[in-house]
Design goal:
Shape: rod-shaped
Number of helices: 5
Distance between the termini: 93 Å
Structural class: mainly alpha
Helix content: over 70%
């Protein structure tokens, strides 16, 4: 007599198949969710990486422009300072002739020497004469020490120097901002790499670990992006 399956055994087999079917559907649903998460993450990271790279390039250009402007301004400042030195030398030579006439008491020679003074130097010389330098022991040593003595090129050199310092500081700050954007771009590239290789791992635990690590790096990147200024105009 052929041996058959009892009703109890058939029931167990049906229950086991139903259990495996539910388990397979649950795993399939989880795999689908993680795949969707990976796709969304890849899309977000691609956009953020493009934005970060664009900002890095813009700030890099801004840094180069500011540093070039600082260099050009510094050159102008040096030229103005050299002109100021030449003017001071000319004033000193002109003063020697006028002072010699003053000490000698030669009024005619003093008038001629005074007329030959640089127009910007003459007011300081006349103000110095008003202090009676030959008899006043407290008189300034010379016209160059009077408040009326001004060399426009010297003031221009100081103004240009301050502008060069400011442009250099702005260029350095722009370069630092560009470097920060580059670091964020590298982090986002790492996220792309982790998400890209996660789908090739058959073990779900490894896949979840890679996606979790990528998510952490993505959050860090977003926080850093929000703390940085946007691209310069």
């Amino acid at each position: 007599m052929a041996e058959g399956l009892s009703a109890v055994e058939v029931g167990k087999e049906i229950a086991e198949h139903a259990k495996h079917g539910k388990h397979d559907k649950h795993d399939e649903r989880r795999d689908r969710l993680i795949s969707i998460s990976e796709a969304v993450m890849l899309s977000v990271v691609a956009v953020l990486a493009a934005w970060s790279g664009y900002c890095a390039a813009k700030w890099g250009t801004e840094a180069s422009l500011n540093l070039a402007h600082a260099s050009a301004t510094r050159t102008k400042a040096n030229r103005a300072d050299l002109e100021a030195i030449q003017i001071r030398t000319l004033d000193s030579v002109s003063f020697n002739a006028a002072f010699a006439a003053l000490v000698a008491g030669d009024q005619r020679a003093l008038r001629v020497a005074t007329r030959r003074l640089r127009p910007g130097y003459r007011p300081a010389f006349e103000a110095w004469l008003a202090t009676r330098p030959l008899t006043n022991a407290h008189a300034p040593p010379g016209p160059a020490f009077m408040p009326q003595y001004r060399v426009p090129q010297a003031q221009q050199a100081r103004t240009l120097d301050r502008g060069a310092d400011r442009a250099f500081a702005e260029g350095r700050a722009a370069g630092a901002t560009s470097d920060k954007y580059v670091r964020i771009t590298v982090l986002l590239a790492t996220v792309l790499f982790l998400v890209g290789i996660s789908s090739h791992f058959p073990l779900r635990g490894a896949r979840y670990g890679l996606v979790g690590m990528a998510s952490l790096l993505l959050v860090i990147s977003v926080v850093q992006l929000l703390s940085l200024p946007g691209p310069p105009a």
